[in-house]
Amino acid sequence: MSTLSIMTGTEDDFFARGRKLAKNADKGRSIEKRRIISFEDLADVVKLVTEARIALFRTVKEKPGSITDIAIRLHRDRSAVKRDLDELARFGLVTISETVLPGHGRMKEVRAAAASFRLQADIA
User: Which of 44, 47, 61, 92 has the most crowded Cβ, counting Cβ within 10 A?
Assistant: First the structure.
């Protein structure tokens, strides 16, 4: 697992990172494997990274499992955990995959997509 960076930045910042990667590739340099989620507005970062979602990410990282199992461990309502997990999955912080349980149907298993995530915000 790698580290995921969540940051604020402009469209220009995004394209500058892309140009830097392209230059390194053209020169035959190895390209650092990084995952970055960039938001233009700090308010959007704050909506994604709430106290409850940080606790949820830590719980999933500690021990992957089903949505129900995770909700029980956190002492939270399953539907609220599901909503938060869907949002974390939408931005790539967790993965949700369906697993077949022999003779028992299916289960959605949740795993952390990174060992950690780093927050970086520039407030102007």
Answer: 61
Q: Is residue 122 part of a domain?
A: no
Q: For residue 120, what pLDDT is reported?
A: 82
Q: Are residues 108 and 59 in the same domain?
A: yes
DSSP annotation of 21: H
Q: Is 25 left (phi over 0), alpha (psi -120 to 50) or beta?
A: alpha
User: What is the residue range of 3's domain?
Assistant: 1-40
Strands 116-120, 3-8: parallel, antiparallel or unpaired by DSSP?
A: parallel
Angstrom distance (rounded) from CA 6 to CA 23: 24
Percent of the residues in the chain that have a pLDDT greater than 90, as a whole number: 40
How far apart are alpha carbons 104 and 99 in whole angstroms?
11
pTM of the model: 0.79
Kindly state whether residues 56 and 103 are assigned to the same domain.
Answer: yes
CATH at 109: 1.10.10.10
What are the φ and ψ backbone dihedral angles of 77, each rounded to 5 degrees? -65, 135
